[in-house]
Amino acid sequence: ARAGGRVSALPVDPPVVYYAQLCARSYSDTPTYGKASDAGRALVYNSVVTLPGTDNKESVLADGDIETVTIEHIGTVHAGFWRALAPIRQPLVDLSPLIITGHSEGADEALLLGATLCVAGKPPTAIYAFEPARLCMDATMRGLFEAHGVMVYATKNGNDLVPDVPPWMQHPCDLALIGKPLLPIPNVEDHLIENVIKSLQGV
Known about the structure:
With 203 residues, the protein is α/β, with parallel strands linked by helices. The protein has six helices and ten strands. A six-stranded mixed β-sheet has the order 3-4-7-8-9-10, sandwiched between helices. Strands 1-2 form a two-stranded antiparallel ribbon. Helix 1 (16-26) packs antiparallel against helix 6 (193-201), helix 2 (57-64) crosses helix 3 (79-95) and helix 3 packs across helix 4 (105-119). The N and C termini lie far apart (35 Å). Mean pLDDT is 94; it is low at 1-9.
C-alpha cells in the first residue's frame, strides 16, 4: 500500500528480530530488484526493503573493493558497497521505503540507501542494519540521519569481526552490542544471520 506516494509502514510495529528474520529469508528468495548473482539486490516484504549480504562472487568482490568515493551530501564512503548498490539505487529511491533492513554487506547498502533517500527528501523512518562493516571516512552520514530523524539500529553480535573492518573507517551510527560470543576471539560464526537471530531472541 502507498500513503502520499510512499510505501506505507507496517500497521503494527514488529520486534527487531522480525527484521533479522526478513534478512535471513532474503538469502533464498528471488530478488525483487537485481539478480541473485548481483552484489546489490533487494527484496520487498510487506513494504520493507531488505538487502541480503555476501553470498556470491560479485558480493565478495564488492567487499574487497575498499577504495573510497566521495558522494555529495553523504560523505566519503566504501566504494565497493556504493558501486554494488548503483544498479538498483534509483528504483529503490522511487519506491520511497519507510523501513530498510539488511545483513552484512546488505546492512551497509541499507545505510547507503537510507542516506540517499535523505538527500532525495524522502528519509526513511527506520534502518535496521545487522552486522555492518565499517562504511565511512567521516561523520557526514551520521549527521544526515540525525538531521532527518532517521532511527538507525545497527548490531554487533558477540565477537563478530566484520563490524570492526576496515579499521580505518567508521560506522555512521552507534552499534548495539548483542549476544554472547560463540568464540573468545574475533570470528565469523557470530556474524551469521541465524546466530544474530538467536541473540536477538535471547537463545
